[in-house]
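Students often ask why we bother encoding 3D structure as a string. The short answer is that it lets us treat folding as translation between two languages. Here is a chain of 316 residues written in the first language.
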Amino acid sequence: MNQLPANRITQLFNIQYPIIQAGMIWASGWKLASAVSNAGGLGIIGAGSMYPDVLRQHIQQCKAATDKPFAVNLPLLYPDIDQHIAIIIEEKVPIVFTSAGNPKTFTPILKAAGIVVVHVVSSSKFAKKVEDAGCDAVVAEGFEAGGHNGREETTTLVLIPAVKECISIPLIAAGGIATGKQMLAAMVLGADGVQVGSRFVCTPEASSHYSFKEAILQAGEGDTLLQMKKTVPVRLLKNKFANDIKAAELRGASEDELKQLLGRARAKKGMFEGDMEEGELEIGQVSSLIKQIQPAAEVVKEIWNEFSAALQNPLG
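And here it is in the second language, the structure alphabet:
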């Protein structure tokens, strides 16, 4: 693979290609993160599903499996956040992606430890707050993305140029990106790099259940839906659980009732344990384009080669 001349993202993270793997709960452990980093992208350990001791194990295993930079994704609403922060600093993780909270709270602490900090947003308003908080870069995630999503429902095609206008720090596009042509489109709109989630779920290295991966391969257009807007909006693959949520929302269920229906460990039940009926299956709209399970290194290579070809012949 030819190497892109260094841009702001490759320089910031010290990586070869501006392709970042999303930190997805129950899918992105050390095996996936190290595989993506070894392939020249930036692998991310998704800490949102991990107890502190489990996170430490994944960080240590990732460091043993790659000598390349990797990151940890840290939802700031996580109950053990202070312990997670301490472990990340102790283990000298070079890069942290934060989400689901106020970046002002922990960014100074992480940066004081020499860590590069990136925050995930769904609007240009919050992107500006990320820059003001001192973060090194921002991920702007469009409505198409899987998992927890913004309430604004702004698509990536609209969000990226809007965010680009209001910030000066590096910009990473996310949501609906699984191919090299989509990567090029995002970068033409102003992104310095892209974050890819759903495509990496369908890799052997992802810790997501095989039944979940197979369900993604069978997904078509319209088979995901943004739900639970009264609690925390999340894009799910349609199944019995998603239909139950939809029915409850249509009858005007309260936030408390929706939380009760959600219960505990729904995401683990679906994505990690493979319960395709009662589990929560978080995946993006771009799942309809994913047709095979491939090693993570092949995914990086394929996206990069398609991007390079499209860059030379964008109308081809």
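Translate back mentally: The two ends are 20 Å apart (CA to CA). Keep this in mind for the problem set.
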